[in-house]
Specification:
The chain is an alpha/beta fold and about 475 residues long. Helices cover about 45% and strands about 15% of the residues. Bound molecules: nicotinamide-adenine-dinucleotide (NAD).
Length: about 475
């Protein structure tokens, strides 16, 4: 439980925003216009299930419409409330600006524990919630485009897309009303893994800058770094898996709802994930110690801490005991404003949520563009690219005949070089580019300005500056 003086999630976001605008030179009134949430719609609807009517409460919050459509996930969780949805919508505004996706910020939530309902019941509930939002243009390809978040995934997005299509039978762009859909319902390759993949790309970019790595009292590359992850859901699982399998990181701790697993020699992320899916928890997993008080493992010694579950897990209560020198906020708002201050004073480097988990909205942007263009990425160019590469290889092999054996193309090289990029490769390339560029824009501010000493304020400065520019251009 957090101390009583801990600000709420929304207050935390506002405090962080205020810290940034205090060192900006915004025209009077504009600061307030950017900070406030434009509107929040609350809906209570009934669904007849198990022989009686159950009433559910849902929200869709629109933080800023400086660009439209507005974008942001829909969360299914019992703790969903207006304050939380508004905080998350504000973060979406800044996140979209930071990674240059052309959207305003929005977020939605439904107070529900999805594990209490079977698939058919969940479909009825999701469709009814979508109906309420579509009716008010709070789901619309040109105005408001949701995506998955905690407790929702491809399945729910497919129901929402279908519900919209049923209510807008002649809208040729209806599939663009929501992102994070399965491939066969208009989704894009690489969306499910996108947020976790973005966390990996963010860390890779951080480790490309030895000066930044040194600020975290670390050195070298990701190889061999000890990682603790909280939440092995969509974001945490993919981030931990990629870091372990592709970058040589050692995942020493995994924290889930029913406690945490710890093994200093490393846990097999794939095996823990399979165990979690089968048993509904991590307890009982072999080759690791299990601690029922999972949050205590956040305080274990490690190089990189990845909170990837929910907000406010690092608070005034435990911040001083956090040993990780580097925290990457894969979840939204895992560090409260109070804890942020404690950690900054300790010298902990925090890669902020608005950047760290932007991989999801980045690939959602690609999906939305794909839906509006009605064509798969790479469909026109792929074979043409292969044909041009074949030309080069043929020519080199022709020369080869004159130059003899000393000059042959390795078959592995030929295979790789000849293959044209498919949609997944293009999506990963676009995501990697986005994560690198956004990090560099934050980093520039972090290093160049004497009054900025952390990446979070740097991220807010870049983002607010872009939102302000957009308002100014509109004449507001
Ligand atoms: P998810 O529902 O797939 O996974 C959440 C995981 O956290 C689950 O495995 C759950 O069991 C675990 N968990 C819940 N409460 C916990 C607790 N108290 N301690 C430890 N583990 C707990 O959700 P997700 O989509 O992976 O989202 C996780 C976070 O990432 C959220 O903050 C979300 O807003 C943020 N996020 C998600 C996306 C996305 O594309 N899904 C994009 C950006 C940000």
């Amino acid at each position: 439980m957090s101390p009583a003086n801990e600000p709420s999630f929304r207050e935390s976001v506002d405090l962080m925003f205020n810290r940034a605008v205090a060192i900006m030179d915004l025209p009077p009134g504009l600061e307030e216009k950017i900070r406030v949430c434009n509107a929040t719609y609350t809906v209570r609807f009934g669904v007849r299930l198990r022989g009686q009517i159950h009433t559910f409460t849902g929200y869709r919050s629109v933080h800023s419409e400086h660009m439209e459509p507005v974008k942001g996930g829909i969360r299914f969780a019992t703790a969903v409330n207006q304050d939380e949805v508004e905080a998350l919508a504000a973060l979406m505004t800044y996140k979209c600006a930071l990674v240059e996706t052309p959207f305003g910020g929005s977020k939605g939530g439904l107070c529900i524990d999805p594990r209490e309902w079977d698939e058919h019941e969940l479909e009825l509930i999701t469709r009814r919630f979508a109906y309420e939002l579509v009716k008010r243009d709070l789901i619309h390809p040109a105005q408001n485009v949701p995506a998955p978040d905690m407790g929702t995934g491809e399945r729910e997005m497919a129901w929402i897309a279908d519900q919209f299509a049923r209510m807008n039978t002649t809208d040729i762009n209806s599939r663009a009303c929501v992102t994070g859909k399965p491939l066969n319902a208009g989704g894009i390759a690489g969306r499910v893994e996108a947020t976790g993949r973005g966390v990996q790309y963010a860390l890779r970019e951080f480790f490309r800058h030895p000066e930044d790595v040194k600020k975290a009292n670390l050195s070298g590359s990701l190889d061999g770094k000890r990682v603790i992850v909280q939440g092995l859901g969509n974001v945490g699982y993919h981030a931990a898996k990629f870091l372990q399998q592709e970058d040589g990181a050692i995942v020493t701790g995994i924290i889930e709802r029913d406690g945490a697993l710890f093994n200093p020699d490393g846990l097999d992320v794939e095996a823990v994930h399979a165990w979690l899916a089968k048993h509904g928890g991590v307890a009982g997993f072999p080759d690791a110690t299990h601690t029922a008080e999972g949050a205590a493992v956040l305080e274990e010694d490690c190089d990189i801490l990845i909170p990837a579950a929910l907000e406010a897990v690092i608070t005034l209560d435990n911040a001083a005991r956090i040993k990780a020198p580097l925290i990457i906020e894969a979840a939204n708002g895992p560090v409260t404003a109070g804890a942020d201050e404690v950690l900054r004073k300790k010298g902990t480097i925090i890669i902020p949520d608005m950047y760290a988990n932007a991989g999801g909205v980045t690939v959602s942007y690609f999906e939305w563009v794909k839906n509006l263009s009605h064509i798969r990425f790479g469909r026109m160019q792929r074979r043409q690219e292969e044909a041009r590469h074949q030309l080069v290889v043929d020519e080199l092999e022709r020369l080869d005949r004159y130059l003899g054996d000393a000059w042959t193309l390795r078959p592995e090289f030929k295979d790789k070089y000849l293959r044209g990029a498919d949609e997944l490769e293009l999506v990963r390339s676009g995501l990697d580019d986005t994560m690198r560029t956004a990090y560099q824009s934050m980093r520039e501010v972090w290093h160049d300005r004497d009054d900025v000493d952390d990446l979070r304020v740097a991220a807010y400065l870049v983002a607010i500056d872009r939102v302000a520019a957009s308002y100014r251009a509109k004449g507001l």
